[in-house]
């Protein structure tokens, strides 16, 4: 790794464009911290202000590859203006298309995968020394530095110690996926499931708690497949980890995402009875309500098993808010299959879910299936599903009016200087009159009105709230 005591070769800032999932957001955050520590690069809002431009890509859906080349075409202009800029491409497209990027985009200096982002400083240094050599020796042909290998644990070990950005933090506990659903590229771009050792995860959470974090969101492509080695050699699953996290002083709310239905073990379900800190909110993708489609997708479970899991959790937490992911127009999906998806959605009453049109991913088994569903049919089905999901989400928000919610206050409100903003267990933003001193506290808030993307609330007159109100001269 570069020596921070050396003068930085960069005078401008760092611009990272992130596509895709929470894992990518998390990775971008870690890259930013690493590059700030190594080169003193500070994040800037516009690419033209940057000396280093990074594209953190996602290839789960759409013509991700083309998007990357389009963006690089635009960035070429910035580089022509200031040739000592460094352009790097990371993430899943880099992992899949590394050599292609090197061939098609000579403007790119560094290509790294999701598992090699910790090696960025070394790769950047190598790119800079190649650039210096090319300037001296006209015959020397500079090429992009490329490392898209899967060195597993090395990434976790080499990233900067966590620093909290607020009262809620993501903690990556595992990487990759070994489920190989027929439509999905993740196992090929991020590698097989790999869990961080239990003690490392706990040390990170303890540090975050000392820095004032009150809520952790345990993160993984298949987070409930977590199997971390404990110091005594035993294996901790996600349930064991959740129990340990609840014991950390200061951590009073626990979330986890994203999960696979087949990893909802009894001990994880029991956590909903045993761990009050675990939120009554679960994101559990099902993709389709039709067993025929689930089998073609190689999800390895049937709709009835998924429903049974939800039923068990709802027995323990009747107010559970459930969200999911759905894929519409998988090859061979019939009108009846789609109706089964709609029926399942109606039955389970989903909250704020994600739905996508099936997108063939190069190298996946489903990509070679004949895709016999017309695009206009896929679009019509997606619209029908999204209308239903939106209706359900709006009804859940509306039903929260008049209820009292436990809210973690996260920040000042964006809209008013006298309001603060927090989140409910089901992840809705609530704005309400309150003192900035409430930031980092859990408070009871009565929901006054539900809007499309947030809720308006009123602090409930608990003795704590009254104490703050007296100091700040507002009424509760
Ligand atoms: N671990 C999760 C699970 O159990 O399903 C999935 C994580 S995956 C990266 C995120 C979501 O992207 C999936 O749930 C799926 O809905 C969507 N997705 C993945 N591949 C897709 C494809 N080829 N076309 C459309 N959507 C896709
Ligand atoms: Fe993808 Fe299926 Fe894993 S959707 S991330 S292969 S569980």
Automatic annotation (TrEMBL):
Catalysed reactions, as listed in the record:
N(6)-dimethylallyladenosine(37) in tRNA + (sulfur carrier)-SH + AH2 + 2 S-adenosyl-L-methionine = 2-methylsulfanyl-N(6)-dimethylallyladenosine(37) in tRNA + (sulfur carrier)-H + 5'-deoxyadenosine + L-methionine + A + S-adenosyl-L-homocysteine + 2 H(+); N(6)-dimethylallyladenosine(37) in tRNA + (sulfur carrier)-SH + AH2 + S-adenosyl-L-methionine = 2-thio-N(6)-dimethylallyladenosine(37) in tRNA + (sulfur carrier)-H + 5'-deoxyadenosine + L-methionine + A + H(+); 2-thio-N(6)-dimethylallyladenosine(37) in tRNA + S-adenosyl-L-methionine = 2-methylsulfanyl-N(6)-dimethylallyladenosine(37) in tRNA + S-adenosyl-L-homocysteine + H(+)
Q: How is the cofactor bound?
A: Binds 2 [4Fe-4S] clusters. One cluster is coordinated with 3 cysteines and an exchangeable S-adenosyl-L-methionine.
Cited SMART domains? Elp3
Any one Gene Ontology MF annotation carried by this entry is:
tRNA-2-methylthio-N(6)-dimethylallyladenosine(37) synthase activity
Tell me the ranges covered by the TRAM domain, including all copies: 398-461
InterPro entries for this protein? Elp3/MiaA/NifB-like_rSAM, Methylthiotransferase, Methylthiotransferase_CS, Methylthiotransferase_N, Methylthiotransferase_N_sf, MiaB_methiolase, rSAM, rSAM_horseshoe
Detail which positions bind [4Fe-4S] cluster 2: 177, 181, 184
Subcellular localization(s) per the UniProt record: Cytoplasm
Matching entries from Pfam families are given as: Radical_SAM, TRAM, UPF0004
Keywords, ordered alphabetically: 4Fe-4S, Cytoplasm, Iron, Iron-sulfur, Metal-binding, S-adenosyl-L-methionine, Transferase, tRNA processing
Q: Which residues bind [4Fe-4S] cluster 1?
A: 21, 58, 92
Q: Does the keyword Iron apply?
A: yes
Instruction: Give Gene Ontology CC terms.
Output: cytosol
Q: Does the UniProt entry include the keyword S-adenosyl-L-methionine?
A: yes
Domain Radical SAM core intervals: 163-395
Coiled-coil spans in chain: none
SUBUNIT field: Monomer.
| Protein role | Catalyzes the methylthiolation of N6-(dimethylallyl)adenosine (i(6)A), leading to the formation of 2-methylthio-N6-(dimethylallyl)adenosine (ms(2)i(6)A) at position 37 in tRNAs that read codons beginning with uridine.
Spell out the HAMAP family in the cross-references. tRNA_metthiotr_MiaB (MF_01864)
Protein name (Swiss-Prot/TrEMBL): tRNA-2-methylthio-N(6)-dimethylallyladenosine synthase
